[in-house]
Amino acid sequence: MAQSGDNSMNCDVLVLGSGAAGLTAAVVSAHHGLKVVVAEKSSWFGGTSAISGGWLWIPRNPLAVNAGIKEDIDDPLTYLRGEIGNGAGDARIDSFLANGPRMVSFLADHAEMEWIDGNRIPDFHDTPGSSIGGRSVSAAPFDGRSLGSLIERLRPPLREATIWGMAVQGGAEMSHFFNASRSLTSSLIVTRRLARFAWHRLRHGRDMHLVNGNALVARLLRSALDKGVTLLAEAPATRLIQEQGRVAGAVLQVKGTSFAIRAARGVVLATGGFPHDPARLAALVPHAGPQGLDHHSAAPRTNTGEGLRMAEAVGARLRDDLASATAMAPVSLAPRSDGGVTNFPHLVDRAKPGFIAVTPDGRRFVNEADSYYDFVSALLRATPTKAAPYCWLIADDRARRRWGIGAVKPFPFPLRPSQRSGYVLSARSLAELAELCGINPTALAATVHKFNEAAHRGEDPLFGRGSSPYNRIQGDAHNRPNASLGPLEQAPFHAVRIVPGSLGTFAGLKTDALARVLDGEDKPIPGLFAVGNDMSSVMNGRYPSGGITLGPGMTFGFVVGRHLAGLPVTRIEET
């Protein structure tokens, strides 16, 4: 990268945003000899990716193939046709399915990426073309010390989802933590993990054993450093630069001073969408309310839609016709010690035995073990017109002690602080709990009675909970006769209020199969690209499986990197 005057720089590629999609574009571009700058608005690198579970949905990925799980490209395409309808005809779907496996291989071969497979993770829905495994990958744990001083700039995991700041790897490691009091093997594994964490805290001030989305971003940051990418934090972009009919860079604010970075090949928008842009939420998300404040996203609060607004200022158009504008997920509003509130996503507890969800009328409305997107969709359908959508997640004490509830961790972690703050409401009987929560007590008693009778038999006549592969993997494999069902019988009973939220946004800029941003006539805006949540969802605003944000996001980062380097992209004919 060349300096050009006191307040300007020149490079080949400028990436705005530092989540996994943007960093992939940076790493691929730099690997092929381009000079790359990544500019991040926040003081932290990593965006939403860094606090995510870190899973990517990549059908036909090399880890699955090496394990003997082989499928034709038509298999995932059949699944997507049923899930996203006409959206499956989007040319970007073909690009994603063809280039996703190549992206996984490239990062394994040419970057600091080690993958772990998700060969036992099923798709969300048991429909034609779905798979019970082999379509997911995630980054292997990473030693944060390898980042050197940059570790101080890595966005930490969501604290409420950690143990004193220690994140737990989803899957086997999380199972060991849940079973630590029941299994000697699990107890030993957990003890060793806690001991290592304590040593890291003492020596380094934080956990250096990075997992999930933190490991994914850390590996990409290490790769970016190794390939000479310039990383700028606290450098928000304010506008795009246009010269001779093309986007040629952007103006940043660096320490209060305007700073122009010109990019000879192009600008890649990867700023994380608009999960905390009230005006955009009010326009696109009906339950967000007229002020846009009634949607509670778990994404970083710095993701406020600047990338979309800058693109619109140069002629870009937003796709606002998707099935959902957001990647919906149920959240609870967990008070923090500093007086703030964390929008805590309920991704684990709902499917465990001993939990149910009810609306204020005291009735269940959903299969609680279905996906987070499906849960919120059902809640919105069950909410009367003009009423505020919310429900209560209820657990008996046996389930609460075993699994925790929301941001409250299992025994022996204390429950009292969350009761004092009002986050968890607890009572000795369901009738008392109903009064505390404002739930219809007669209906709640009848709901729990019927649920318990069927749960003892391992059945859920109302919603079929536990019947799908996804339901079962979300439950407890040791629970019989149904991994996801258990009666609520042991007092006291506990409740947490759930409201609609999201993991990010789906509505985004219109792009083509090369991730080029399109104008109002569906023509590419020269020099401008969008990936991640700045690109409109290739899933047409639906949620067929876990990892359908990171998978396409990183795949199109790979596509953009190759295109900017002048290299061919598989299954793409340029126009």
Short key terms for the protein model shown above:
alpha+beta; 575 residues; globular
Describe this structure in words.
The structure is a single chain. It is built from 16 helices and 21 strands. By secondary structure, it is an alpha+beta fold. The strands form four sheets. Strands 1, 2, 3, 9, 10, 11, 12, 20 and 21 form a nine-stranded mixed β-sheet that branches. The mean pLDDT is 94. This is FAD-dependent oxidoreductase. Its cofactor is FAD.
Largest sheet: 9 strands, mixed
Ranges with pLDDT <50 over ≥5 residues? none
What is the radius of gyration computed over CA atoms, rounded to a whole number of angstroms? 23 Å
Q: Give me the secondary-structure category.
A: alpha+beta
Query: Helicity, in percent?
Result: 25-40%
CA distance, first residue to last residue? 30 Å
Shape: globular
Strand content: 15-25%
Strand elements, count: 21
Write the layout of secondary structure elements.
Layout: E1 2-3, E2 8-16, H1 20-31, E3 36-39, E4 55-57, H2 62-66, H3 74-84, H4 91-110, E5 115-117, E6 136-139, E7 142-143, H5 172-178, H6 184-204, E8 209-210, H7 212-226, E9 230-232, E10 237-243, E11 246-254, E12 257-269, H8 278-284, E13 296-297, H9 306-313, E14 326-335, E15 341-345, E16 355-358, H10 372-382, E17 391-396, H11 397-403, H12 416-421, E18 425-427, H13 430-437, H14 441-456, H15 469-474, E19 493-505, E20 516-518, E21 524-530, H16 550-564
Parallel strand pairs: 2-3, 2-12, 3-9, 12-21, 13-19
Antiparallel strand pairs: 1-2, 4-6, 5-6, 7-8, 10-11, 11-12, 14-15, 14-19, 16-17, 17-19, 18-19, 20-21
Helix pairs in contact: 1-7, 1-16, 4-16, 5-6, 13-14
Protein name: FAD-dependent oxidoreductase
Keywords: FAD, Flavoprotein, Oxidoreductase
Cofactor: FAD
